[in-house]
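User: Fold both of these, please.

Assistant: Here is the first one.
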Amino acid sequence: MSFSIPGLVARVAAGSALGCVLMGAGLAQPTPASPPIAASASAPTLAQAVDSAWQRAVQAREADGQARRAQAERAAASSLWAAPPSLELSHRDDRWQTSAGRRETEAGLAWPLWLPGQRSARGAAVDADLELAQAAVDAGRLHYAGLVREAAWAIAAQRAEVGLADAQVRYLQGMADDVQRRVQAGDLAHADALAAHAETLAANALLLAARQRLAASQSQWTLLTGLQLAPDVAPSAAASLQSPSLPVESHPDARLARLALERARKQLDVVTTSRRDPPELLLRLRQDVPGRGESAQHSIGIGVRIPLGTEGRNQPLAAAALSEIDVAETRAQRTHERLAAEAAQAQAAVRATEQQLQAERQRAALLRERAGLIDRSFKAGETPLPELLRAVSAAAQADAGLARQHTALGLAQARLEQALGNLP
């Protein structure tokens, strides 16, 4: 998706129905609204915000730990021995029996050996773990990209509301001042001044509520990303959004599910090649002393210990590995179906939102023209104030709807990018 820095509020407010009414009425100058959180050259991009959010995420630490464990497993799989060697020590004498001075001392080492094919199978499983760890990082970053996109567009929507509410307050305040002058001149009744003042107070209350919602959205943004500023975002006009070009298989979630299935199969290979515990090569040094005054005798012994594999040992391991494969296959299939459905829904949402935006734009233009006509009629003394207030309120609501539809289109496009697996 294409994001740009120009403010959404300024664009919407400058071309809004309320701004045109202001110019037509001559009651106030239509200046773009200044949101409490202004864009600046130091405002981060969406990509920078995603990086910041990922660095703060617990999931990032889990992914790093998974990668470190896989690296440690790789080092173990590259060893010459299937397990760490062990040292054996034993000593016997007849001190508590005949006390004839007979002694026997033995020291030995045991080296576990790889079974045929076991080392390569374990190495392949470790490689699958490393790829899975990297895929988990990519999928996690995409997840946080979705959270950042939602938060950024929530702030954009709140900025638009604050800008429009501020413009409406300034217009109503100017109109209330004009009404008060006409009341003092005897052209209007005092009740009209009270109504205009009441409308201004109501608009001020809406402005305060909008600013409060904007502050809440900004607080959520800071909690998510650790950043004080949020980027200004705008809907993209890229035609490529109309036809997704990325296949579902390229989505990080699909790749993660596929690698999890591959890892499960590699684990089954490890179980298959490890039908018994590793055999051990034994080397022993022995010293025998037959009795007092007799010379010691030394000997060297070499042996092999071969554990036997039983069904009681192997069946639970094989069943667990097969069960993991079955779960991984089902998860991969469901993930593929989910991603395809989400991409289709997001694409349909973009098209529907574009049509709604066009309708809102036409509606705002009609109410803008109507408000301007009624304003001129009010100035000429041909239309009562309540009708003007209703026309201005309808135009303001249309402008708010148009601004919301602008942000809705941008959010729909962002969700399409998210469904396609694209990072900002």
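And the second sequence with its predicted structure:
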Amino acid sequence: MGYRAINFSAGPSTLPEEVLKKAAAEMLDYEGTGESVMEMSHRSAEFQKIIDDAEQNLRDLMNIPDDYYVLFLQGGGTLQFSMVPINLLTNSKKADYLITGNWAKKAYEEAQKFGDIRALASSADKNFSYIPKFNKEDIREDVDYVYVCYNNTIYGTHCNEVPDVGDHLLVADMSSCILSEEIDVTKFGLIYAGAQKNVAPAGVTIVIVRKDLVGHAPENTPIYLDYATHAKKGSMYNTPPCYPIYMAGEVFKYLKRIGGVKEMHERDVRKAGKLYDYLDHSEMFTPTVAKEDRSLMNVTFVTGNPELDKKFIAGARERGMLNLAGHRTTGGMRASIYNAMPEEGVDALIAYMKEFEDENK
């Protein structure tokens, strides 16, 4: 196999090597069909099995009950900024949004086109370096749902407990942390995740939605934006993103082989723990997030000197460590250490940080 960099990209991100090798081996001939999954009819029995197995394996991994649909959609997390309010603002047409970062802000702004949307709490005052607190009493009584972005890729924050919204419906964008921790799906009315962080190449978005919430979209809803359209057709109303669904399915099989989400979470905690421990004791590098709100997936840090940050990122690239620059809105560094990042990758980063710190004191 050719050279493999250590890829800290925030998404599209690194995928498990054994999954990539299997996909490469099957590229021209999937299981004796003589064709690639890329070329396969989505109406074929072979593809039907691929999508059915992917759904079942995800249900097994996340313990998704039968009264939830699992949908494989297109349009990324961004289309869900619209689909969620269109489909769920069905009674009061009110929703409260927790503004925890850039993507939550975008979702909030989009939802305002469809109803009475209020910011429940925000951490914009400190550049989204913490998860804002609220009391369930702060939520308007008659909201159709409460919205949260569970892990904030840009800022490196994460909801380390399920927000207490009382009896209200909770909707979560879990694009950058799905399958990294065990969650109780029944505490959420709807969970969605763009696949390109922890699951698959870009192109498929997973929506897990309670069945009783589907089928209430307004009559003038464009047909593709109604969850019921996709639920009735088993995510194949039109040609689905076949190859990303196949890759997602292979990642689900891989996760089951290694011991499921529980085992994956233990690995993620170990990786992130090493990196945060180094940052907490470093004299040069400083983590940028409140300790209790740190993400296991996206670790953000700075030296305090933008020129030194640039030098560090350039040196990392020379050593085969890619995509360590922070988002343009934050600067500094960001190491995205999703499920597929091997522990050796984190060890290599820490070794380089120590070396850099010694040389640039």
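The chain has nine helices and 14 strands.
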